[in-house]
């Protein structure tokens, strides 16, 4: 997407940092993962996904589940990663996007 070069580079940097931190903090029993979001109806970017019907429809059309994400779609995944059930998940990029751009 035009104008998103710095944003994309920073997302990539966070993913690399996650792997390094997982290695460094694992010795202390700390897991490190990154949750990679798809388009979510929030204030991000001035609320364009939430407030612009054309943008919302375009993104929904490129998402396997046929809609844009909602904040509630993310919280459960993050909460799960904080439980003992996720104790063996480490150094992972977890895509939570509804199947965007498949």
From TrEMBL:
Among InterPro entries, the record links this protein to:
NAD(P)-bd_dom_sf, SDR_fam
Family to which the UniProt record says this protein belongs: Belongs to the short-chain dehydrogenases/reductases (SDR) family.
What is the name of the protein in this document? Answer: Enoyl-(Acyl carrier protein) reductase
> What does the organism's lineage look like at the top?
Bacteria, Pseudomonadati, Bacteroidota, Flavobacteriia, Flavobacteriales
């Amino acid at each position: 997407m035009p104008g998103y070069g710095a944003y994309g580079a920073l997302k990539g940097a966070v993913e690399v940092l996650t792997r390094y931190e997982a290695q460094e903090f694992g010795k202390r029993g700390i897991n490190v993962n990154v949750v990679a979001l798809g388009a979510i109806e929030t204030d991000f970017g001035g609320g364009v996904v939430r407030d612009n019907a054309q943008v919302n429809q375009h993104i929904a059309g490129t998402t396997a589940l046929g809609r844009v994400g909602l904040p509630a779609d993310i919280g459960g995944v993050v909460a799960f990663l904080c439980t003992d059930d996720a104790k063996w998940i480490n150094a992972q990029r977890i895509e939570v996007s509804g199947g965007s751009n498949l």
